[in-house]
Amino acid sequence: MKTVSILEKEFGIQTRILYVKKAHGNEDWHSTLHNHPFTEIFYVFEGGGQMIFEDQKKSVEKHDLIIVNSNVRHTEIAIQGNSYEYYVIGVDGLAFCKDAKESNHDIYPDFLNTNVFQANYAKQPLVLQIIESLYREAKEKPIYSEDYCEKLFELLLLNLLRLDETPLAIEPDRKSNKQLEYVKNYIDTHYSRDLKLNELAKIAYLNKYYLVHRFKELYGMTPIDYLLEKRYSVSLELIETTDYSIKEISSIVGFNSQSYFNQVFKKRSGGLTPTQIKKLQSS
Question: What pTM was estimated for this model as a whole?
Fold first, then answer.
């Protein structure tokens, strides 16, 4: 018989821990802004640096805990000569929000429509101790580690919620379509790459068959069909507005084979090839 967690019983929340990582120095840094279809919790345990959230830059220091709700673009920046080490927990099914009872509290200055939170826990050593235990458990994976990690994470959340200086509340991450939107946006940005279904499923933390089913249900086509539609629309715009050759355009939009490019194009252009469209534009 499965035990119902306090989070599920009291808040109607079912969480899933995706990863618990430790980042050192520059080797784990993202060079560009990125986002996830799930929440991340950072804890700086050594040194400090900066984080960017959308268009805002914030300084972070030792014992800062930073919560980034799903689909907020962010990245971490090291300051030359300074150490910058942190834990990061990726968790699905959970979102943080400002506690309405504490709406005037400024310990947790929030921004980006209450999607990012930051506070310092230097005076609350238990928070770091729990995160360290969670990291060790997730890394070493002893027997019952999955259940143990779940309880440790639950303990972490309860401590964050019960501390007097923490005006936070939690709620289910209401994002039934956020992961699908994330995949769609990813394709819009990276259409020129050799994208595969397995990669798209991996970045969204979804089963690939479920991804295909839900994506088609929402957008009327599979992720790969959407990718081809995106390449077609971009290629058509390039044909109409630039002097690139058809071979160059084929490569720019991500096709390795010009014959396959012609096949995809004809299917969506009413039977006309890219060359025929270009000639029509020139006449």
Answer: 0.63
Q: Angle, to 10 degrees, between the axis of helix 223-241 and the axis of helix 258-268? A: 90
Strand bridging mode 74-77 / 84-92: unpaired
- Looking up tokens 């969480």 gives 15
How far is 184 from 227, CA to CA, in rounded Å?
A: 9
Let me know: does 118 contact 52? Beta carbons within 8 Å. no
CA angle in degrees (0–180, nearest 5) for 231-232-236: 115
For 214-266, the pLDDT digits (tens) are 889 889 999 999 999 999 999 999 999 999 999 999 999 999 999 999 999 99
In angstroms, the CA 172 to CA 43 distance is 22
C-alpha distance from residue 94 to each of 13, 156, 175, 276 (Å):
7, 13, 10, 52
Q: How many CB atoms lie within 10 A of CB 197?
A: 15
CA–CA distance from 63 to each of 102, 118, 131, 135, 211 (Å)?
Answer: 22, 10, 12, 16, 38
Chain centroid to Cα 19, Å, comes to: 13
Tokens of 225: 């069909």
Mapped onto helix, strand or coil, the DSSP state of residue 52 is: strand
> pLDDT, tens digit, for every residue of 88-142?
999 988 888 776 454 443 333 444 445 788 889 999 999 999 999 999 999 999 9
d(CA 116, CA 114): 6
